[in-house]
Amino acid sequence: MSLRSLIGTVLLSTALFSHSGRLQAAEYTTVNPAASTLSFTFNQMGSRVYGTFARFVGTLDFDTAHPDTAHAALTIELNSIDAGSDDANRQLQTPAWFDTANYPMATFESSRVEDLGEQRYRITGNLTLRGITREVSVPVLLKSEGGIGIFDGELVVKRSTFSIGAGEWADTVVSDDIEIRFRMVAPQH
Question: Where are the alpha helices (DSSP H) in the chain?
Fold first, then answer.
């Protein structure tokens, strides 16, 4: 192969791969709450406890070609908690925990998105619980399956940072680290 042919092949390959990369770019703007999940785990007296939130609303403006301009928000109805028993669910809504009478919602609103490569992103934003707002960063993996985007992420939140589990619960009976996992499902547009 001559140098001229090699250069031509490289230029053609570059053009084709660049073009196909643009074709693979996808936009996601709607979160399907029925197909999405929001869960948490923590330790209580040496046992692992799993729970979920049944009601939440996610909004999304995410273009894989321009992730730096993306925006995501999540509002969680805290009284939709399911920690495995009615007693636990009622306890978690009291003033010592989420205080849902005064703070019925938790919110997350992104402030920036970083592309980490290979469909991995870091979404940074403000998480508000019990009227306390803190910046958090969430690593997220985007999987695209048949025109559907699946955003999987997890982070660890210290409950003491948000004054959750105050009073008699402030000791180590319940772990300070709460692992939050989510799977947000969004159709491609």
Answer: 3-24, 86-92
pLDDT one-digit tens code per residue, 112-135? 999 999 999 999 999 999 999 999
Buried b (16+ CB within 10 A) or exposed e, 6-16: eeeeeeeeeee
Phi then psi for residue 8, to 5 deg, are: -60, -45
Q: Is there a contact between 53 and 78 (Cβ–Cβ < 8 Å)?
A: yes
How many C-beta atoms surround the C-beta of residue 113 within 10 A? 21
Question: What pTM was estimated for this model as a whole?
Answer: 0.83
Distance CA 29, CA 174 (A): 37
Q: Provide the CATH topology of domain 26-187.
A: Lipocalin (2.40.128)
As beta bridge partners, residue 35 has: none
Residue that is written with structure tokens 């660049």 in the block: 18
Which candidate, 159, 150, 160, 157, places its Cα nearest to that of 182? 150
Closest CA to 185 of 143, 139, 136: 143
DSSP state string for 43-88: EETTEEEEEEES-EEEEEEEETT-GGG-EEEEEEEGGGEE-SSHHH
For residue 46, count CB atoms less than 10 angstroms from its CB and return exposed for 0-12, middle for 13-18, buried for 19 or more.
exposed
